[in-house]
Automatic annotation (TrEMBL):
Gene Ontology biological process terms, A to Z: mitochondrial respiratory chain complex IV assembly
Organism: Phascolomyces articulosus
Species classification: Eukaryota, Fungi, Fungi incertae sedis, Mucoromycota, Mucoromycotina
Name of the protein in question: Cytochrome c oxidase assembly factor 5-like protein
Sorted UniProt keywords: Disulfide bond
InterPro entries (UniProt xref): Cyt_c_oxidase_assmbl_Pet191
Amino acid sequence: MPSSCQEIRQELIECMLKSNCVLVKRNTVAECFKSEHADDVPAECQSIRKSYAECRRGMIDPRKRFRGNATQ
């Protein structure tokens, strides 16, 4: 995996492991990403997940692949 997305991925994992979906309801991180558990995931984790998806998409997009992901 490209190193540019690795930090966001790690941040997403840490956020999800602290969420009520994993800690209280004892779901796996993968289960928490499903739509039926969306209410148990904090907005912060959802925004990190969106950033991670955009990062991954940017690595595949041929127009951005050579320029790299845009820094915000």
